[in-house]
Structures are given as C-alpha cells and as structure tokens.
Amino acid sequence: MITWYLxxxxxxxxxxxxxxxxxxxxxxxxxAALLVALFIIWFERKxxxxxQMRYGPREIAPRxxxxxxxxxxxxxxxxxxxxxxxxxxxLPYILSPIIMIILALLPLEAVPLxxxxxxxxxxxxxxxxxxxxxxxxxxxxxxxxxxxxxxxxAVVGGIRESFIITAYELIAVLGFLSAAAMTQSFNIVNxxxxxxxxxxLGLLNPIALLAVFIAVLMSTSGFPFEIPDSxxxxxxGPYTEYTGLLYGLNMGGGYIKRWVxxxxxxxxxxxxxxxxxPVPGIITGYFIPSLIVSxxxxxxxxxxxxxxxxxxxxxxxxxxxxxxxxxxxxxxxAFGLGLAEAYFGII
Amino acid sequence: xxxxxxxxxxxxxNPLGRVFVGNIGALAIGLKYFLDPNRITLLYPHEYIxxxxxxxxxxxxxxxxxISCSSCARICPARAMKMLSVKVFDKxxxxxxVKKFPVINYxxxxxxxxxxxxxxxxxxxxxxxxxxxxxxxxxxxxxxEDFQKEPENVSxxxxxxxxxxxxxxxxxxxxxxEEEKKEISQPVEQxxxxxSTKQQTNNPEPKSVNKGGxxx
Lengths: 347, 216
Hints:
The complex is a heterodimer of chains A (347) and B (216). Chain A has 347 residues and is mainly α. Chain A has helices spanning 2-16, 19-26, 30-51, 69-79, 90-105, 107-110, 127-135, 139-149, 152-183, 188-195, 201-204, 206-219, 244-268, 282-306, 316-343.
C-alpha cells in the first residue's frame, strides 16, 4: 500500500507537476495548446460563418455544431502520404517544422504561472525578458523552411515572413517591455502581484496592449495580416512543398505561437491569475492559477480569431507601413506613458 | 413616389475619424451578426424550397383529356415531345382505333412550358418540383404510362419545406413552413420582426416576394 502511494506521489509530484514538464507538455504546453488549437480553429470557422450568413462546419455532428470536424481533418493530415520532392534540401526540410514548434513552445518554460516559490520552472527574476527573447527564435525556422523548400512561392513567402518579423517583433518586444517600465521589474511574479489590486496594466496602458495585440496577430500571421501564406497569391507561402503531417505541424505552428503570446499577454497585461491568490498545495497552488491564465489567454485568442470575419487582408507594403509609420511611434508613446505613470505613482 | 437622392455625409474625412469610425463600425456590425446570426444557407437534403403552383417543373399528361391535336409536339422548340401511335378503345365511338398521344424526352426538354400553354384541353400540367435524378439516359425517355404518372418528389421525402422571405430589417430570411403556420395561427404576442414577416406571408397574391426565383 505504502509503495503504491509512493509511486503515485512520485508520478504526480515529480513527473506531472514537475514545473518544466508540466508547463512544457501539459498546461499551457503541448497538450493544452493542441486542444486550444482545435477549439480555436473550430471557433474561427464558426464565427466567420455566422457573420457571413452561413452555417460553418455542421455535417459531421449537427447537434454540437460540427465540433468533431477538426478531429476528422487532423486524422486526414496524419494518414496522408508525406511526399518529399527531389529538389528540396532534405534535412532542414524535415527538421525545421519540428524545431519551429518546439522553439515556439519554449517561452512557456521561462514564465512562472504561480507565486509560490517551489513551482517556478526557472528563477523568475528576468522571466519577462527571457520569455520575450525566446519568442523571437521560431520565425527563423520559417525562413529556413522556405529556403530549404527550393520553390519560388516558398521563397517569396519566406521573404515576406522575414519582412513582417523584423517589423513586428520590435513592436511586440517594446510593448511587453513597457510593462517592465511601469513596474520597474522584469519579474513576472512581481508584475502580477502589482495587478492583484485590480489595476491591470492593460487598463492602465491600453495603447501598449493594443500595439502588442496587433503585433502578435501580425507576427504569427493571424488572419487579417495573413501575408506570408496568403492563399490567393502564394499557394501556401513557406509551406507550399509540405504534405501530410508536416503540413499539419506548420498549420498548427501559427496557432501555437499565437497561444504562447496570448499567455504572455494574459500574464503581463490582463492580471495573470489575478483575482485568485495561490495557496500552497499542488492543486490550489499550481493547477488552478495555470488554468486561470489559460482561460484568459483563450479569451484573447478568441477575440483574435473573431477579427478574421471582419477585416480583409492587407498588402505587404500596407502592413509594413502600419508597422513603421503608425505602430512604432504608438509603442514608443505607450512606453512613455508607462514611464510617466510610474513616475507619478499611479501604479 | 421614388426615393429621394441624398448625399451621405462622410464621417471618415480626417484620419482619426477613419480609424475610429471605420474599425469600430466594422467590429460592431460583425458583432451584431455574430450574436444574432441570420443564416440563409439552404441545407439542401435536409431542407428544400417549397415552390409555388405555376412553377414549370416536370410535365404530366392526362390521357382522357387529350384530343390528339399534336399542337404540343409542333410547338416544342427542343423537339422533346413526339406523338406516339397507340391502339385505344374509344368510349364515344365504341370501337378500337389508333390514336396519337404525346410522350416526352427529358434529355431534350428545356422546361419552357409552351406545350402546357398551347394545349387546348389542358391535358398537360406542370408539377411544382424539378429535382429528380435519372440513373441513365434511357430512363429519361418516358413511355406513355410513365408520362401519365407524377414523378415522385424525392426532396419532400427527405427534407422539410422552407421558404425565403424578404424582411425589411434583416434582409433575406429563411423560414420553415411549420413556424409560418404557427405565426399565422397565433396573431397575438408577436415581436415587431415577426409582424413584418407575417404581413408578407399572409398575402397569397403574386405580390408576395418568393415565386421560386430565389433558388440557392
């Protein structure tokens, strides 16, 4: 009996709730990201259908609004033959989608999801800086993917991706760091504790929130700015030569990147686990706060995917014009606003 | 009286107005449709459009009325109708004789309805449905016995009837026949929207909007 209890404790404490594994694989990592991607893709199609006077996915399970449709799509992607063309550079061609997804999930390792010391994956002193820095890695592999594909559509898509990334990572980084300017701290636990009183940084500095929101949409090729893989011009952008499961990984990759950024937005601007105060214990101290953060991030993602039904796609030059001419001055203004609020002691 | 032509003031002149009015207006319209969706897709096998009497669907012959004038075969622009010589027992003359009756070839028919219009004794009529599949080309050339039967209404077996109505506020609206009947039988307790649909559904005259023009 005691040995079974010990085994159970080891599995729960040291494997499932061991912070690096829990945050990378379970919530808000791989499994939660997969479920969220399934839900969000369904929601995106359904919301666009509602706005455009259609029904959306329906035929597979009419009673629950066709929610299983995406499981069917996923099965199809998983069972399809993976064709590797002769002209591609094989090793980077196969590895880059996988590395892209792993690197996209990496910022979750740097982010604390609770204020209790034993459940930090890494020491949280510079966690905001590290998370933002890690989030800029994965787009490099989209560019690598397009170059390895050796296809003109893929190359054009990769060039667009690099244009967009250079413009919008800057805005995202500056926007996130304006929170550091407001609180004089890179420690996400400090930032969340300051927001505990109801003064969310997103309410105090809405310009930074707006800039980060648009930058995240743009840098993860969210729908109104779906420029690198625009279907009507480039077949599928950097993913043109991919088939089967690798293509499915690429499609999910954008959603996973957006999910990680939404977690960051929820932590920094929307109060993290704010109304709830973590109490020591696995469930109350770690599971519930991470769940609250995930739900907030899910709402952010739902708003992002609702924009699909309202806006049309921008051209590359328009998007870059918005970035360099409007959003960067706006982000600098948000940074200044944050500094001013910190100086006058509003926070 | 024709509608007055009026210039709309453009609120998007200065850039600030463009940003706010444009984006927030678009989002508000999107949100309105998201919360109160008006879905007009016809879910075809589960629903079908109930067409009015007078729709030019399949053509059926009433043999007793036919006087073998062959006007229908002569007027047919696609030469789909042919006269067929058949031995029949004439009741008035009380003897066996050969008469000509029309048969139709749906490979050729364009459903113009001239044959029905020209028939002096109204021996031909249309049925108000037209969605039927023949498995091969030979089946589409009907024999005299088949031409007298109404073809089966397959979509009515599987689906429920639906009608499209133009509502003044919501645009094109899809309503089911059962709901329509309920609305007519309960004239009290209506919201404004139901009232406007009800006014239109109540007139049976051709003034009401749908005459089968809106198909898909």
